[in-house]
Amino acid sequence: MSSNKKKILLLGEIEHAHSEWSSLGDIAEIIVPTACDRAEFIQESKSGAFDGVFGAYRTFLSEAITGRIDEELVSTLPKSLKFLCHNGAGYDQIDPEACTRHDIRVSNIQTAVDDATADVNIFLIIGALRNFNQGMVQLREGNWLEGVPMGHDPEGKTLGILGLGGIGRALKKRTDAFDMKVIYHNRTRLSPVLENGAEYVSFDDLLSRSDVISLNLPLNSATRHIISTKEFSKMKDGVVIVNTARGAVMDEDALVQALASGKVRSCGLDVFEDEPKVHPGLLSNPRVMLIPHMGTHCHETRTAMECWTIDNLRSAITTGKLKSPIPEQAGM
């Protein structure tokens, strides 16, 4: 194998974009770790098995092998590692500060997940508003609408989007077809073009005005449990909540209590605090519509995500720059 090829560490599996991954062989030597857990991975790294590695491709599921990409782990990696290309939009499994301290540039996926996740968002909003989960539960038990309360139309309802990024904007575009009034809150207001008719409001106003609240913000130290008991108390009685972001942006214990009190009438969840475990108070409540993190669970989107991540690696190898660096490292 040519000695001038860059060494690339594969953390996880390529499931769809096989030809695109194979084409990297022209410019890269692929190294696959043998470790089965974090302790073994750290030992393998310390043994010199990854020496000379220039970049890494990682998947969400690779956390089962490496654990979180934090200071402890990063400090064991070779200093030759300069690029970490993450196959996902959310990158809460990675500590950006630790990577920056060790001069490792991180990329994520910034648009390829938007449409598929927004589609799931719409499914959960309509399902939660119309009580579809309760109807499906009763139907499978041999009953016909037994004890299933009337639902509500989306038309005319106020949808509060917490995090009007790419997914939030794709959601807004879809809810226009349902004549929903969209308000949003970000740390900073967007341009009128990006707002596309959505109204910028304060965090507290979003909580108090929304009939439906959609969580579309990244998980980090500032957003963990951004929705908890205090925030629920500021919401309308009978509010509907949907989360397709990360489970830990909402306090699940507080959500279970809000459902029990009737403050939250129903909710739709694609993500959970301790995946794959789900809070028993959510599993047992028919007013909670649950799906197992399926926001991007489709062939076309998963293929596009892998291609995006491979393109980041290829760019790193050929130009020394990433296609989509994470915001924390802008200008690095």
Helix content: 25-40%
Q: What is the element string, with H for helices and E for strands?
A: EHEHEHHEHEHHEHEHEHEHEHEHEH
The CATH class of the largest domain turns out to be Alpha Beta
The largest β sheet comes out as: 7 strands, parallel
CATH topology of the largest domain: Rossmann fold
Family: Belongs to the D-isomer specific 2-hydroxyacid dehydrogenase family.
Organism: Tuber borchii
GO molecular function, one term: NAD binding
Protein name: D-isomer specific 2-hydroxyacid dehydrogenase
Concise synopsis of the structure shown:
This protein has 332 residues and is an alpha/beta fold.
Would you give an account of this structure?
The chain has 332 residues and is an alpha/beta fold. It contains 14 helices and twelve strands. It has a seven-stranded parallel sheet with strand order 8-7-6-9-10-11-12, with helices on both faces. Keywords: NAD, Oxidoreductase. InterPro entries: D-isomer_2-hydroxyacid_DH, D-isomer_2_OHA_DH_cat_dom, D-isomer_DH_CS, D-isomer_DH_CS1, D-isomer_DH_NAD-bd, NAD(P)-bd_dom_sf.
Characteristic key phrases:
332 residues; alpha/beta; Rossmann fold; 2 domains; 7-stranded parallel sheet; 5-stranded parallel sheet; 14 helices
